Amino acid sequence: MDNPKTPRTVKAPSYLDALIPVFTLIILVGSSVALFGLDAVNGPLQVAIIVSTMITAVIILKNGHTWEDVAESGRKGISTVVGAIFILFSVGALIGTWNMSGTIPTMVYYGIQMITPNWFFPIAFLVCVAVSMSIGSSWTTAGTLGVGLVGLANMLGLSPEVTAGAVISGAYVGDKISPLSESTVLAAQLNGVPLYKHIRSQLWTTVPAGVIALIAFIVLGMNKSGFDVTVTNNELARFGELFHITPWNLLPLVFLLGLSVCKVPASLAIMCSALLAGIMAAFVQPQAIVRFVAEPDLATPLLAVKATWLAMANGFQENSGIEQIDALLSRGGMDSMLLTIWLIIGAVTFGIMVDDFGLLNKLVTPLLLRAKGIVRLFTSVVATAIGLNIAAGDQYIALLLPTRLFRGEFAKRGLAPENLSRIVSDAGIVTSPLVPWNSCGAYMAAVLGVSTMGYMPFAVFNIAAPLMTLALGITGINIRRIPIATSTDDSKGNNSGSEPVQK
Predict the structure, then answer these.
(1) CA-CA distance, 345 to 85, in Å (whole number)?
(2) Would you list the DSSP string of 414-452?
(3) Is residue 479 classed as helix, strand or coil in its secondary structure?
(4) What pLDDT score was predicted for residue 45?
(5) What is the phi/psi pair of residue 492, to 5°?
(6) Which residues have C-beta within 8 Å of that of residue 268, sequence separation ≥ 6?
(7) Do residues 317 and 330 lie in contact, with contact meaning Cβ atoms separated by under 8 Å?
């Protein structure tokens, strides 16, 4: 008779086990940036993250887990970003067809005529706030209006880095306080807080941080002199020669905003708008299609279909003879998002693995034990959320895990759950686009055409928001409490009796 199979022994991770993946990630990512600079995102950064993931897998195997356990964790990680991958492909297609249909050229054409350089940055910020609040999506705002605004900045000779910072700041202000925002709804639900109570709580940090951002963009725009009228007129004239400029070209933008307000899933709404732009191009920009495909023997309907297909797959190409116009319009295509998707898959897989096998808990638990006062507790949540954005590479991990780790502690101390929902939003959601390998940072860099390190110093709101939430902890302003005797129930959503209490 065969001997029974020896049961597998799984060891709990040591502190060294938990530290090795994090230090490996920091060293490899830092080295790739040092060696390749801004080009690190074109492959070296992805390699650094994949190698870090493999080293993490070795540690997991050492502790007694099987390769199937590791593979299952990786599959789970990839499944969490499927939605983001579809959004990225859809945005790539949209940029291509919006350029071909004249939507982006029309936005830039009218923008050059209407916006003065001195007020460009604050206007870009406020417009993105309004649009993001109305549709509840920072990604959609940046991937549509943001693309046009950065292109317009290049046309006007303004800084694309500052413009990208204004776009991202405005997009996250609106996303953070919009009841239509998926991340805002999720933060409220995870903490058992009514949605509008969560939004009201966020206003205490969002409004001051937004005002700081607006002032910063006004100051950044004050020293901008007028642009070269001759150059600008040449560009406007060339736009008019290349495209039929009409307000009808903005129909794909209006259509997308309408679908977003109606809560159509982001990837589906963006793809529908991309297809509409491709169809419109056949009627309003036939000359652009002929230039793009350059196959005179092909029947007109087939020419339009092929042009749309190519624009969605590989992006639109323009050869106008003016460098700024060609750089703006020769963009897009699903294939332009492949490097970003590679980066996101690697980062999220790493993050899921260090969480699933207890490595993150090993590092975070000491923070929780040392967080004796309110200030230390708030600081621990902020540090954990930002650290997860760096280590795990995904804003939803940075939102979910701190909530799971600290929710019971907040209840035990009689702190209302809306305190925690506000902190994880300020530190987890808002800081995600500041990390180059985070899914949000990679996305923003890809669609705006500006590196994360380039726009990071100018994403003023995203830097100010976590500082504002720490300021509330230090001053005791708007810290809401619940009776400790009922804190377990309240942590599950029954927080109607919470009142603001000064620390």
Answers:
(1) 9
(2) TB-HHHHHHHHIIIIITTGGGSTTSHHHHHHHHHHSS-H
(3) strand
(4) 81
(5) -95, 5
(6) 90, 259
(7) yes
Phi, psi of 501 (to 5 degrees): -130, 135
Radius of gyration of the chain (CA): 24
Low-confidence ranges of the chain (pLDDT < 70): 1-8, 38, 180, 223-234, 368, 371, 392, 394, 484-503
**Which pLDDT score, from 0 to 100, does residue 488 have?**
41
What pLDDT, on a 0 to 100 scale, did the predictor assign at position 164?
Answer: 95
Tell me the C-alpha to C-alpha distance, in Å, between residue 97 and each of 243, 280, 340, 496.
13, 9, 20, 49
Contacts of the segment 68-77: beta carbons below 8 A, 24+ positions apart: 69/357, 70/353, 73/349, 73/352, 73/353, 73/356, 73/357, 74/349, 74/352, 74/353, 76/352, 76/356, 77/345, 77/348, 77/349, 77/350, 77/351, 77/352, 77/353
Give the residue ranges of DSSP H helices in 223-285: 229-242, 251-261, 266-284
Largest CA distance in the chain: 93
Nearest CA-CA partner of 354 in 12, 60, 121: 60
Q: DSSP secondary structure string, 28-70?
A: HHHHHHHHHGGGGGGTHHHHHHHHHHHHHHHHHHHTT--HHHH
- Say which residue the tokens 């945005």 belong to: 91
Name the residue ranges covered by the structural domains of the chain. 82-336
Does residue 477 sit in helix, strand or coil? coil
Helix or strand or coil: residue 90?
Answer: helix
In whole angstroms, what is the distance from residue 477 CA to residue 473 CA?
A: 7
Helix (H, G, I), strand (E, B) or coil at 359: helix
- Please answer whether residues 444 and 452 qualify as being in contact, where contact means their C-beta atoms are separated by less than 8 angstroms: yes
Place of tokens 């249909």: 101
Residue 77 vs residues 59, 176, 352: alpha-carbon distances, Å: 18, 25, 5
> What whole-number distance in Å separates Cα of residue 219 and Cα of residue 122?
9
